[in-house]
Amino acid sequence: MSPIIAPFPAARPRRLRSSAALRNLTREHELSVNDLIWPVFVRDGEGIEEPISSMPGVVRRSVDKVVEAAIEAHAMGIPAICLFPYTDPALKTEDCAEAWNPNNLCNRAIHGIKAAVPDMAVMTDVALDPYNINGHDGFVVDGKILNDETVEALVKMTLAQADAGADIIGPSDMMDGRIGAMRSALEAHGHQNVTILSYSAKYASSYYGPFRDAVGASGALKGDKKTYQMDAGNANEALRMIARDLQEGADMVMVKPGIAYLDICHRVKKDFGVPTFAYQVSGEYAMIQAAALNGWIDGEKVMLESLMAFRRAGCDGVLTYFAPQVARILNG
Ligand code: PBG
Asked: Which of 11, 188, 311, 320 is deepest in the core (most CB within 10 A)?
């Protein structure tokens, strides 16, 4: 598109900015409650909401409290909630068997939410890190992360989540071949309508620090995730990952982290035109909250501006810890 602009003073771009009414009429992108997926942390126990120090304002909830939160989120119009379990360290093993236990924390939370608010879409995370004694997303043997054996385990995990009632499966592990394997297994087990939102372009990022505290993986993690998550210097590779995951049967794709990777979001939406999501990750949330709590920025305004950036870049929606706060503001 080549914009036609008359010479000054025939064109005075400030005319369209001169009142709130004209700005509202001519705004190109809007942020809506419909664009939000709310990531929440689940822990065991009852009646518990436990603060996470590196994510001020975010808590780990016991299943009953997650269900309450989902009911509130649904009432505010948030379409989807995404579950992340904080697993009891005693249940973390090398074989990660808790990951596909039909009664694990995550699967119990799915049941609870679907029973209370069936219309709320429940998204899950598929990766072994919450259950792995060494904090990695895949099986580790002799210091190497195994690919194909991990994919088999992820398929078992996916089926357990789908059986529990998950609507959106979110593979965040970055193993090769996982999307195809999950899709065939879902088809074979009667889960034709379970969707896959693939973390297709997931970077090995330092912005995940607070999340690893939240799920209790920080202490466990040995080394880094650079042999499976992407290098921050790559952009074309992200497009190849998106193409591959779509070919294997992903319904929606994700770029992660968010703000530092908006160029990728933009290229993905432009090249593929598929439902595209970004994850405004824990470190992004923590930075905004920290500056806001110090009185250095207006937290509410920066939050809204940061989320509008995802819409402008072409994202259909955003996973954000701010979801309930944003929804409250957007609902007036
Ligand atoms: C685990 C997973 C991570 C996040 C989502 N799923 C962390 C990681 O890959 O180490 C990060 C989310 C966030 O930082 O908010 N596979």
From this structure: 320
